[in-house]
Amino acid sequence: MIKALLLIFDPVATWEGIVRARRSLAFILILFLLPLILLTSAAEGYGLVRWGKRQGEVSRLKTFSLGEAVIVEAAQVLVSLVVVFFGAKVLKSLGETFHGRHTYTQAFTAVAYSLSPLFLLRLLDAFAWINPWVSWAIGILLSIAVLYQGVPRTMLPDPSHAFGLYLMSAVLLALVSGLMRFVTASYFQGKFPAVQSLVAEIGARLPL
After folding, report:
1. Residue 33 structural domain
2. Is-contact 48 68, C-beta < 8 A?
3. pTM (2 decimals)?
């Protein structure tokens, strides 16, 4: 979480430190990305149980059982990881269209660290009165700003192609994360009653 804050407030020096460290994909995943996502998911899960989420046209508060919260947040963790791995794959492919030769680890480093502000801002989702699109909008704008410094340092594109690669990467991450937010926000708003019933049934069976 500290690294995510440093990327927001001092992106240049933080990115230079990241590049010099040359961490492996496993290191970034296990010691940086996964703890950050688990922390924010735990905070949101607490909020689901404590304060709930607003649902329906009349905007009533629905609180979640502990079992439901565990299932929902476990799904969010998995989807968040899929977004990062998929984003890294596409970023690597985009780099190749600009005649670059990049490793998957380079692309994963760029995406994982750049999306950390977005994951960090999910802490706001713990509160029922905050619109989920507000936390996403602030988070993705910060992530796009961080990505601006990260792409040239991690992907090392040709200077003439650097901005194009950054712009396409930013649009991609905004679209993918926006789709993720649309699905999760719709679920919390009660637009998938069948899925909610299934989650409630499974959650009731968990030994919690």
Report:
1. 23-202
2. yes
3. 0.91
